[in-house]
């Protein structure tokens, strides 16, 4: 909004020329979302604590320590992140850019589904929440609308094509099969992040790491000079998504202030579904869907552990892990919660570096 209001005045006031630069506006988005988190974080947590009373219901089949250490902690902390990210993005991004609205649509829509799920959990005092079928139906409907919208905006030579990491020119055209594929990317990313959000601070830091990587990639693919130099597919207008990613980093840092062990608030499905879906949407727009699986490899690992556990138990009656998702497996092995969290953060950093290497290794 500031770009649309102030940059046209750059001829009269030279200072406003700064709003031309994505780097300046991205920095502004980080600081704004961080400030919003600090100002409203305590108030929102107090409201959630008053509203929820006993806090988020804890799984009885989970690690025994959680019944003691996490009891009474409020959930729906994703509301704080959503508030900070939405305001910051609208304030600093070019609001005429359709890609920005696509990502905000997915973020808000998935956030609403997560909010409904969290609301049912705390009001009915049940860890089940919204049924899986209803959640998936809502996610796929929103994903379908978002992907169709992106396909209308994108250049014809890119709309239904899939970029392959490490390869320069091989970009197969999936045709209309691209629509369900991209929908699966959004829904898969959303639920993978949701599965990861099981320990204090475990999900938010990898989300910020992914956001930082996609901020860089969005900036590069949206810039003709850099895209040509790195032999990336130019996506006109995608650079504005760097501002959304920057806002997510700032909001994530603000949320981590309250979510660091021992957590004062949990993100809940409100945040995990929303920002997993947002990362999926961004990867589709910037044509780095497969790179998301590398940069967000920690989320993939968590999701695969659940799939393997369920498949093994149904087929053989035996469990591969002591508990799934896999972070609970390590807790059952005796690892302290901070040990699991920090080591998983390290894994996320390593995978992010591997994912970024695809920009040059072609």
Task: Give structural notes.
- 66% of the residues lie in helices and 0% in strands.
- The chain is globular, with a radius of gyration of 20 Å.
- It has one domain.
- It is an all-alpha fold and 362 residues long.
- The two termini are 37 Å apart.
- The model has no long low-confidence stretch (mean pLDDT 91).
- The protein has helices at 2-6, 22-52, 66-69, 78-92, 98-124, 132-153, 178-196, 204-221, 224-230, 241-259, 268-285, 289-295, 297-316, 326-332, 337-357.
- It has 15 helices and no strands.
Give the tags.
362 residues; single chain; mainly alpha
Q: Which secondary-structure class do the elements indicate? A: mainly alpha
Low-confidence stretches: none
**Multimeric state of these chains?**
single chain
What does the average pLDDT come to?
91
Number of domains: 1
Write the layout of secondary structure elements.
Elements: H1 2-6, H2 22-52, H3 66-69, H4 78-92, H5 98-124, H6 132-153, H7 178-196, H8 204-221, H9 224-230, H10 241-259, H11 268-285, H12 289-295, H13 297-316, H14 326-332, H15 337-357
